[in-house]
From TrEMBL:
Swiss-Prot/TrEMBL keywords: Metal-binding, Repeat, Transferase, Ubl conjugation pathway, Zinc, Zinc-finger
Catalytic activity, EC: 2.3.2.31
One GO term (biological process): protein ubiquitination
Domain RWD stretches: 6-123
InterPro entries: E3_UB_ligase_RBR (IPR031127), IBR_dom (IPR002867), RWD_dom (IPR006575), TRIAD_supradom (IPR044066), UBQ-conjugating_enzyme/RWD (IPR016135), Znf_RING (IPR001841), Znf_RING/FYVE/PHD (IPR013083), Znf_RING_CS (IPR017907)
UniProt source species: Lentithecium fluviatile CBS 122367
Protein name (database record): RBR-type E3 ubiquitin transferase
Record GO terms (molecular function): ubiquitin protein ligase activity; zinc ion binding
Leader peptide range in chain numbering: none
Pfam families reported for this sequence: IBR, RWD
Lineage: Eukaryota, Fungi, Dikarya, Ascomycota, Pezizomycotina
UniProt entry tagged with the keyword Repeat: yes
Length: 435
């Protein structure tokens, strides 16, 4: 029978970097899973994922004086973030004593380690683990990182150039796992995107997607375009990927018979009516509204909202309306620097909130407002020219309201209003109401 010292000494030879003292040893054990393990989050078991790699476990052996003749070894298992559930850890720790009995009180450290590795390899006998949701995130990230490291350290043959390449030079496709060298992928996809043949931007394996299909399905194999995110990972240059997105969208719109095009001659953008989901109510009034919603389209490029009937009106009429709308927009709206939208106020006060970029401004103040969280402070702050300017046009004292011609510039309006405001305050002060 081996002595305690001999047994601990042998651990040093077999396992990497064990920390061995007179009566104890601890070291990290890698787990080789024979098949993927499902990980469930507690308390939400719907949140589950499967992993193929588990982090290292630390195993502690403590040997009492009378080990192994009269006492079993004491075993403790530790895991980063306690990913190994306590009930499994307890069961394994208890197994050491049972084994010691079974082996007739002899040295069992090695037998225990192989028992442990065998159990761990099958997912600790369960094939699944229940952990906290933060731990689930940790395990999934560990699995992803380990798989990535393994891939990079390996060597692979590119099926396009037929050259053996290192993992660093290769890319494994996200959906199917087919492996190609980055150089071949970049060359092929760049050429396809430049020439506008975006249907070729898919996995380059000729059998991809057909391995699991029956012969009947073969003819109906669908093109699975590579996502822009994946193209950036390969990596393709950003401007190339941007072109891919634009061309792909345009092709889809061209093919889609339901696409309505913006009637403005200078725009010709797409106006997708599906942006407005149908209401679910079925009462008569709502049906009427539903019908009218079906006719409303908004151009995705210039935001022009138009009724479907407008498309049927004649060319000259459309052109005249186009010009009129452009003229009106230029004369009566201001341009938001942030989103380039034309805005004008719709209700009586001077506050304007852009429905696109949600910035606040005041029609009396040409500049963008400084504090977007508290816009009204703009006209509530004393000793500023804008104090009480929110309703300036509504006050009866603005005798000349309505005399602005369409040609008056914004700047003139602001100056005029400031002048009015100064007069108003002077009058109020004269009446003894200090503001
Ligand atoms: Zn290649
Ligand atoms: Zn593939
Ligand atoms: Zn348009
Ligand atoms: Zn209409
Ligand atoms: Zn805006």
């Amino acid at each position: 029978m081996a002595t305690q010292a001999e047994e601990l000494e042998t651990l040093k030879v077999i396992f990497p970097e064990p920390v061995v003292s007179e009566r104890s040893a601890h070291f990290e054990l890698a787990i080789e899973l024979t098949k993927p393990v499902d990980i469930f989050a507690v308390p939400d078991p719907n949140d589950s994922l499967s992993v193929s790699h588990l982090p290292l476990l630390t195993i502690h052996f403590t040997l009492l004086e009378l080990y192994s003749s009269n006492e079993p070894p004491s075993v403790t298992l530790r895991s980063t973030r306690d990913w190994l559930p306590w009930y499994i850890a307890h069961e394994l720790e208890a197994a050491a004593s049972m084994m010691w009995e079974e082996y007739g009180h002899s040295s069992i450290l090695f037998a225990f380690i192989s028992h442990f590795q065998e159990t761990a390899g099958t997912g600790f006998g369960f094939g699944w683990l229940a952990v906290s949701s933060s731990c689930l995130t940790y395990l999934v990230e560990y699995d992803r990182q380990t798989a990535c490291d393994k891939f990079k350290k390996g060597s692979h043959e590119c099926t396009i150039c037929l050259m053996p390449k290192t993992g660093q030079e290769c890319y494994s496709m996200e959906h199917c796992g087919h492996i190609f060298c980055m150089e071949c992928l970049q060359e092929y996809y760049n050429a396809a995107i430049q020439s506008g043949e975006i249907d070729n931007v898919q996995c380059l394996s000729p059998n991809c997607g057909t391995e699991t299909l029956t012969t009947h399905d073969h003819r109906e194999k669908k093109v699975r375009h590579i996502s822009p995110g994946e193209l950036l990972q390969i990596p393709l240059e950003r401007h190339v990927v941007q072109r891919y997105v634009v061309v792909k969208r345009k092709k889809s719109l061209d093919v889609d018979k339901s696409t309505i095009w913006c009637p403005r001659q200078w725009c010709q953008g797409a106006a997708n009516g599906n942006k407005y989901p149908k209401p679910t109510e079925t009462s008569q009034e709502q049906e009427i509204r539903l019908k009218s919603w079906n006719r409303l389209f908004i151009c995705e490029d210039c935001n022009f909202a138009f009724c479907n009937c407008y498309l049927d009106s004649n060319r000259a009429q459309k052109q005249a309306e186009d010009e009129a709308s452009l003229k009106y927009t230029t004369a009566h709206t201001s341009l938001r620097p942030k989103c380039q939208a034309h805005v004008s106020k719709i209700s009586a006060c001077n506050h304007i909130r852009c429905t696109q970029c949600h910035t606040h401004t005041f029609s009396t103040c040409a500049q963008r407002f400084w504090k977007q969280a508290t816009p009204y402070r703009h006209c509530n702050t004393k000793r500023t020219p804008y104090y009480h300017s929110l309703w300036v046009l509504e006050q009866g004292e603005d005798e000349n309201e309505g005399t602005f011609g369409d040609e008056v510039s914004r700047q003139e309006i602001v100056v005029y209003r400031l002048d009015q405001e100064r007069k108003r305050r002077a009058r109020m002060e004269a009446r003894g109401r200090v503001v």
